[in-house]
């Protein structure tokens, strides 16, 4: 394999240990960029640096950002970069504390943009943030197609109404909408010279660049797949949210495209939701591909899904991902492929 030569450009990726961020980092390195990643502690990325990124060691930089919500958190990290991909944000559905979920998501965005505007330098072309379909969807709508013009304007007031009783998944939904609103408010207030765009994935599956040391440490979206595949789930777990899905490789590719095409991506919101991929569908796919794994829960085979894992017709809701698919320049990876490619990596835990 011939390694790509350096293109002389540095890209900052925050939260480099994350499922999406680590894939973005791999794609950037393969395309010749120097990767500058941030984590709470730089040494926590050693497994990436000494594993999948090792062949690009001369183009990998890791920096510690212990608290991304404090003034100056990213001031050093942004210096000299051409693009910034801000993926760092709490991804948890169980923590029920506004100050641990919502506030860090908002403040992290603001501190990154403030650093970009003041300290990055004139070579900075683009800042792309990882948002979520959670920032555009609204469960009270029926038979609706969500587009980039839509906003989740219900989670924040509902969370505030419930106060300490607000569940963790509601706080997560509020955090995504409020963090992205802060992102666009910064653009409107400060009118920075660099391009700004946001990417909105649905539930992200697909093969991780670096599987964790044990299956128990898999992220919130891969763990249910593992529980089905391993047989630990005696009954099928509930699908996450509305079960919209997208492959991590497509999410990464859209981030990189938006960063590399600042004049075209400026101001855009790229929804990445291919169709509806339920846990029943995942189980059906895995049972067919692994007939010897009789411990995979059956549920009700063939139900709760449509051919091609597409969104249901009204009164079901759907997402318009046409802008992201245009950026990709090819069709999105389908649900069966993302589940099978995920399972291939998860075989190491069996």
**Strand line-up of the largest beta sheet:** 3-2-1-4-5-7-10
- What is the alpha-carbon Rg in Å? 20 Å
What series of H and E elements makes up the topology?
A: EHEHEEHEEHHEEHEHHEEHEHH
Largest β-sheet summary: 7 strands, parallel
Task: Give the CA-based shape.
Answer: globular
The total strand number stands at: 12
Low-confidence stretches: none
Helix content: 25-40%
The N- to C-terminal Cα distance equals 30 Å
Mean pLDDT: 95
How many helices in DSSP terms?
A: 11
Strand percentage lies at: 5-15%
The helix/strand class is: alpha/beta
Element layout with pairings:
Blueprint: E1 10-14, H1 19-30, E2 34-39, H2 46-49, E3 60-64, E4 83-86, H3 98-119, E5 126-130, E6 145-146, H4 155-162, H5 168-190, E7 195-201, E8 203-205, H6 223-230, E9 244-247, H7 248-260, H8 262-265, E10 269-272, E11 275-276, H9 279-289, E12 318-319, H10 322-328, H11 335-346
Parallel strand pairs: 1-2, 1-4, 2-3, 4-5, 5-7, 6-12, 7-10, 8-9
Antiparallel strand pairs: 9-11
Task: Describe what you observe in this structure.
- This protein is of the alpha/beta class and about 350 residues long.
- It is about 35% helix and about 15% strand.
- The chain has helices at about 20-30, 45-50, 100-120, 155-160, 170-190, 225-230, 250-260, 260-265, 280-290, 320-330, 335-345; strands at about 10-15, 35-40, 60-65, 85, 125-130, 145, 195-200, 205, 245, 270, 275, 320.
- A 7-stranded parallel sheet has the order 3-2-1-4-5-7-10, sandwiched between helices. The chain has a 3-stranded mixed sheet with strand order 8-9-11. Strands 6-12 form a two-stranded parallel sheet.
- Helix 2 (about 45-50) links the parallel strand 2 and strand 3 (about 60-65).
- The protein starts with 9 loop residues before the first strand and ends with a helix.
- About 45% of the residues are buried.
């Amino acid at each position: 394999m011939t390694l790509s030569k350096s293109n002389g450009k540095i890209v900052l990726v925050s939260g480099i240990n994350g499922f999406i961020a680590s894939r973005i980092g791999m794609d950037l390195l393969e395309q010749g960029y120097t990767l500058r990643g941030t984590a709470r502690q730089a040494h926590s990325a050693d497994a990436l640096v000494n594993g999948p990124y090792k062949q690009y060691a001369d183009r990998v930089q890791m920096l510690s950002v212990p608290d991304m919500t404090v003034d100056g958190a990213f001031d050093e990290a942004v210096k000299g970069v051409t693009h910034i991909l801000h993926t760092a944000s709490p991804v948890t559905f169980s923590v029920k504390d506004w100050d641990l979920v919502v506030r860090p998501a908002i403040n992290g965005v603001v501190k990154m943009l403030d650093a970009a505007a003041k300290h990055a330098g004139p070579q900075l072309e683009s800042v792309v943030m990882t948002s979520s379909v959670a920032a555009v969807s609204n469960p009270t709508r029926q038979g609706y197609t969500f587009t980039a013009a839509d906003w989740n304007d219900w989670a924040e007031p509902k969370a505030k109404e419930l106060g300490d009783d607000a569940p963790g998944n509601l706080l997560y939904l509020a955090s995504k909408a409020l963090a992205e609103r802060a992102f666009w408010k910064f653009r409107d207030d400060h009118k920075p010279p660099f391009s700004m765009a946001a990417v909105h994935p649905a539930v992200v599956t697909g093969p991780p660049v670096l599987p964790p040391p044990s299956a128990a440490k898999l992220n919130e979206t891969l763990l249910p797949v593992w529980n089905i595949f391993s047989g630990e789930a005696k009954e099928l777990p509930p699908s996450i949210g509305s079960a919209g899905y997208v492959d991590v490789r497509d999410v990464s590719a859209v981030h990189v495209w938006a960063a590399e095409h600042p004049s075209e991506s400026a101001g855009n919101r790229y929804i990445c939701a291919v169709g509806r991929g339920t846990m029943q569908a995942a189980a059906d796919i895995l049972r067919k591909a692994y007939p010897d794994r009789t411990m995979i829960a059956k549920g009700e085979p063939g139900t709760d899904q449509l051919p091609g894992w597409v969104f249901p017709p009204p009164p079901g809701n759907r997402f318009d991902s046409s802008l992201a698919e245009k950026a990709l320049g090819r069709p999105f990876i389908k649900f069966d492929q993302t589940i099978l490619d995920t399972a291939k990596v998860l075989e190491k835990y069996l």
